[in-house]
Design a protein that fits this description.
Helix content is 10%, strand content 21%. The chain is built from two helices and 14 strands; from the N terminus they run αβββββββαβββββββ. By secondary structure, the protein is mainly β. The protein is globular. The strands form five sheets. Strands 3-12-13-6 form a four-stranded mixed β-sheet, with no helix packed on it. A three-stranded mixed β-sheet has the order 1-4-5.
Length: 283
């Protein structure tokens, strides 16, 4: 009995290696464009990759300029200020050390309101610089005065369970020495101090340039502040300068103080009080 060749399945363009069909010259142009601006035009100023160490042109990730707004309450919540002057209204009131409140989507003040400091994208000129030991790091390309907003930590909001699962997977990959994740876990203590809200943002695959900020055992030159927009359930994580930062200086902050694994990933922060290993704790 004659056999017939199977009917071929329809092509799936999304899974094809399209880069193999791009001429070498065009591939060089695409690589140069990606290396010239990590944000791909998403920010007000380009953020170039600078590498004098090896031949890696840029880091692979999907750029997201701000955190997902899916946690908005979804109804008209916010101030009724007009003209963008939100002074003295509930949205402009401080909420304590390490916490900040800003106007949200439901506020009538508009995008030009002065109480939306962290909502216009990256707040300073930056560049991503390759280091022979740390890998990529984030540096400022201008002088930054103490207290100035620098950038938000953007990425995927994930549940506690998913964060634990991913961290276990990332730990296995990190042990091979060829992988570095960017999952940030922050705990916001409630006023009663008896409970806390845990926020997990994973910028490993999707995020912005804040994913390149390295650890410093002396606390670094950035402070992490939780910014809560009126009408939003989950705070955003934003970095502000904790001191004057000179042009060309690397941006760093403390990943934490707990080190449960003395044989953990090595730290190359170079501070006088460096512990030699990066912080680690139970997930």
């Amino acid at each position: 009995m004659a056999s017939h060749p199977p009917t071929p399945l329809p092509a799936r363009p999304r899974l094809r290696r399209l880069d193999l069909q791009i001429p070498p010259r065009d591939r060089q142009i695409i690589t140069a464009a990606r290396a010239s601006d990590a944000s791909g035009g998403s920010e007000s100023h380009p953020i170039p990759f600078i590498n004098a160490v090896d031949r890696v042109p840029y880091a692979h990730f999907t750029y997201s300029s701000s955190a997902d707004a899916a946690f908005d309450l979804g109804f008209d919540v916010g101030c009724r200020c007009e003209g963008g002057a939100c002074e003295g209204c509930a949205c402009a009131e401080g909420v304590g050390f390490g916490l900040k409140r800003e106007c949200g989507r439901g506020c009538r003040c508009g995008s030009g309101c002065g109480n939306r400091e962290t909502q216009g994208g990256v707040g300073a000129r930056l560049r991503v610089v390759r280091d022979p030991r740390k890998g990529w790091g984030l540096h400022v390309a201008e002088f930054v005065r103490e207290g100035r907003f620098v950038c938000e930590y953007s990425g995927e909001y994930v549940t506690n369970e998913e964060a634990k699962r991913r961290l276990m997977e990332y730990d296995e990959l990190t042990s091979g020495g060829q992988f570095s994740h960017a999952l940030l876990v922050v705990r916001e203590h409630l006023p009663s101090r008896r409970a806390c809200l845990r926020v997990n943002i994973d910028a490993t695959r999707i995020g912005n340039v804040a994913r390149f900020i390295n650890h410093s055992c002396d606390g670094g030159n950035l402070i992490l502040i939780l910014v809560r927009n009126t009408g939003s359930l989950i705070p955003r994580l934003c970095f502000f300068a904790s001191q004057d930062i000179k042009e060309g200086e690397e941006l760093t902050f403390s990943y934490g103080d707990v080190r449960l694994r003395p044989d953990g990933a090595p730290c190359y922060c170079g501070s006088t009080g460096c512990f030699g290993v990066l912080p680690s704790e139970q997930t």
